[in-house]
């Protein structure tokens, strides 16, 4: 639905959807400047969050989809808000066009990309496999 409306150009999930809009009760006036729909905490694409998403796909046995999303993430993180950089690892990307936003070279973005790549390669989710095996609910 977001893609059909032109509100999601990147083939990765936004960190929040549906986006909070001016008519919604959760909308705050400052969002007009700092948190528009598809931006920052209001639906921006965060590589950090996408790394966990890809790991979750692996954990669910969706290995082909996880690999596809990892390729999409690797393309996204190559975009940088500075010219001449091979990788940006930006904090977040605008959902509507994939423009890199926030600060570059975020270690959490890089770390979760590497974790996701490892999960896809090994078809496992280190640490979380252990947690699922050791912890029980109830």
Summarize the structure.
The chain is mostly helical and 138 residues long.
Biggest sheet strand line-up: 1-2
Shape: globular
Strand content: under 5%
Q: Mean pLDDT across all residues, rounded?
A: 92
Low-confidence spans: none
Query: Percent helix among the residues?
Result: 25-40%
* Cα-atom radius of gyration: 16 Å
Span between N and C termini?
37 Å
The total beta strand count reads 2
Model description:
The structure is a single chain. The chain is mostly helical and 138 residues long. It has a domain at 45-134. 40% of the residues lie in helices and 3% in strands. The protein has five helices and two strands. Strands 1-2 form a two-stranded antiparallel sheet. Strand 1 and strand 2 form a beta hairpin. Helix 2 packs antiparallel against helix 3 (63-77) and helix 2 (47-59) packs parallel to helix 4. The longest helix is centred in the C-terminal third of the chain and has 16 residues, at 107-122. It is globular. The N and C termini lie far apart (37 Å). The model has no long low-confidence stretch (mean pLDDT 92).
How would you summarize the topology of this molecule?
Blueprint: H1 31-34, H2 47-59, H3 63-77, E1 92-93, E2 100-101, H4 107-122, H5 128-134
Antiparallel strand pairs: 1-2
Helix pairs in contact: 2-3, 2-4, 3-4
């Amino acid at each position: 639905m977001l893609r059909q409306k032109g509100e999601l150009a990147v083939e990765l999930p936004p960190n929040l959807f549906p986006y909070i809009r001016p008519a919604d009760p959760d909308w705050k006036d400052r969002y007009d400047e700092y948190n528009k729909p598809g931006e920052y905490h209001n639906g921006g694409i965060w590589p950090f969050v996408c790394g966990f998403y890809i790991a979750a796909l692996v954990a669910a046995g969706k290995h082909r989809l996880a690999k596809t999303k990892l390729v999409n993430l690797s393309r996204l993180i190559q975009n940088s808000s500075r010219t001449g950089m091979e990788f940006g690892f930006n904090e977040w990307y605008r959902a509507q066009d994939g423009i890199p936003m926030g600060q570059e070279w975020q270690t959490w973005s890089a770390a979760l990309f590497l974790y996701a790549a490892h999960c896809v390669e090994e078809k496992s989710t280190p640490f979380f496999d252990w947690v699922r095996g050791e912890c029980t609910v109830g």
